[in-house]
Amino acid sequence: MPLLGAHMSVAGGLHLAFERIARVKGESLQIFSRNQRQWDTPPVTDEESREFQRAWTEWGGGPVAVHDSYLINLASADEKIREKSIDALAREIERTGMLKVPYLIMHPGSHGGDGAEEGLQRVVKGVDRAMESALPWEEVMILLENTAGQGNALGADFRELAFILDNVADSSRTGVCLDTCHLFAAGYDMRKRTVYEQTVEEFDRLIGIKHLKFFHLNDSLRKVGSRVDRHEHIGKGAIGLEGFRNLLQDERFKGHPMTLETPKEKDLNEDMENLTVLRSLLPSF
What are the catalytic residues? Predict the structure, then answer.
């Protein structure tokens, strides 16, 4: 079975995310290690790391990923933004390493009108420089998240993700996180079984399923191929239940962590409802 969970707030302390994921009976977790909309963020302290490890063990030690800052754009046409992004990504790697979390999820970025080829080259160079700067945290794997392809965003096409993975200096430290809303908005239709299978086969041919480490489970407010990134609750968007059933019953992904990124209030009721829906789609054996 896939390991179903959610992105949780770290308000009040990084370790409190585990209390929140336990409340919804989640089996996997995603967090931000610091404020995702600020450039200047402090490192993780030794005390924070110890508290985090303790809470992680008490929760049960399930899979965890950190999502990087929304400000980071390694593909930017603005050199100053690229330099700040490289430094910020290096600091993200360091914080993720301090927490002993294996995965750091990032968006490839937007090329700003300079074209995909130029943008992808910038991403490759930026990842390489960030990894070099953030040594010795070599155990942290950067997962490239696919995008909806809105504006000049890179990563909507599997070939763009493959280019980055194939050209970074250390491919052993990179993988992929697939977001279902982004996948659908980019034109990959998961609703029909035959199309779903073709999509997985295309991913395997261009990238390789072995590189797929994490999933974001989000329904889409907009139609297939809209190129618009708008998350909706599971079964209430354009993907619908059948699309998620196809994914959740795919034996190739049993044991994979899959986290919600859907809207919610502090009581987490929406997460509990979405997880209940997802679990109803799991195979009965």
Answer: 37, 67, 70, 107, 145, 179, 182, 216, 229, 231, 261
